[in-house]
Amino acid sequence: MRRAVRERFLPPEATQVVWSSNRGDRIFSPIFHQSAFFLLVAVLLFFMKTPIRVAVTGAAGQIGYSLLFRIASGSMFGPDQPVALNLIEIEPAMKALEGVVMELDDCAFPLLTDIRATASLDEGFSSVNWALLVGSVPRKAGMERKDLLGINGKIFTGQGQAIARNAASDIRTLVVGNPCNTNCLIAMNSAPEIPKERWFAMTRLDENRGKTQIARKAGVHVTDVTNLAIWGNHSSTQYPDFYNAQIGGKPVTEVISDHDWLQGEFIETVQKRGAAIIAARGASSAASAANAIVDTVRSLTVPTPSGDWFSVAVCSDGSYDLNRGLMISYPIRTDGSSWEIVQGVPVNDFSRAKISATVQELQEEHDAVADLLPKG
Ligand SMILES: NC(=O)c1ccc[n+]([C@@H]2O[C@H](COP(=O)([O-])OP(=O)(O)OC[C@H]3O[C@@H](n4cnc5c(N)ncnc54)[C@H](O)[C@@H]3O)[C@@H](O)[C@H]2O)c1
Fold first, then answer.
1. What is the CB < 6 Å shell around ligand 1?
2. Cα–Cα distance measured from residue 175 to residue 46, given in angstroms and rounded to the nearest whole number
3. Which range is least confidently modeled, 35-44, 136-145, 160-169?
4. Which residues are within 8 A (CB) of 139 and not within 5 positions of it... i.e. 6 or more apart?
5. Could you give the CA distance from residue 131 to residue 174 in angstroms, rounded to a whole number?
6. In the structure, what pLDDT confidence band is assigned to residue 331 with cuts at 50, 70 and 90?
């Protein structure tokens, strides 16, 4: 593989010169010496970082089509971190996936070391450092929520087990496919060998949506809005906690005097943004979801700015008196390697009622898939 990678990254003439360096006419050329030296330095620098291997399920889907190119270009792990992609699809989508792989090839991404496309979970999760579980079965007409939970539950049981069997020892998993909190709960419980703090479900798109709504209302740039936590489920019950959010370091409730808007239209807009996008675009959000995946992984791997936090669902330890063991979105901070639920965030009566409602929904989802979870 090393030889294949090396050949992928060096222009053909450079490869020839290096491999034929025993020829006298080239050895004594000063120009050759100089270029060989720089090539050697470049190759050494490249190999100093081991590629991060990332599995993406549902890789031929809408989100996959926006996500893979961001990962391969360096947006997720940085501009000097090589990456390798394991792309997982169901058999009927393998032809489409072949086309996506051709397009990745055609980008000639300098950081992308290799691509494996497969319908086999064991092969797909082999040696991966990150698993991004995007693929899931969408709800169809006439299907009850419980049916959807059951169908996806079986998929995520198999994926959790395959991750435990095959992934690298530092594996971290982010579940995106809906219902993502409960799909993640099932996968996590199917892989008891993997520490619970390595499992996440995505609520970052909701946080990003909320920040933009607040910035628009206040007439500021979105980067001025910080500390906006999403609590609970990635669903229409989620609670975007504007009470603790800030604009330029001041409470949002001081900068935006229209509290009726914050308590009403703001929350509803964030909760129903997914449906509004489907109504406008005729398809569900994909590029913004892919962007939120990149943001989530970056936020989990880069130290959180001082005083700030970000949103992701994690296995609850009972913080804020919420149900232990459920995948609940909380305000989270990290030093870049380990994360923590931010403690001491004020929760007033309004927030408590909203948080209780969304956690109650997560408990109901849990109960609906109880047969897929360990007893007790
Ligand atoms: N958490 C979030 O914030 C968020 C945001 C947007 C979308 N989503 C969810 O992400 C999921 C994917 O969205 P999309 O727009 O890419 O959907 P899509 O239908 O375009 O693509 C889904 C892909 O998953 C594949 N797939 C289905 N079952 C699979 C399995 N068992 N293994 C591997 N691949 C499988 C399908 O073949 C398809 O290519 C959906 O469940 C959607 O609801 C979550």
1. 57-58, 60-64, 88-90, 93, 134-138, 155, 176-178, 180, 202, 205, 234, 284-286, 289
2. 30
3. 35-44
4. 145, 148
5. 6
6. very high
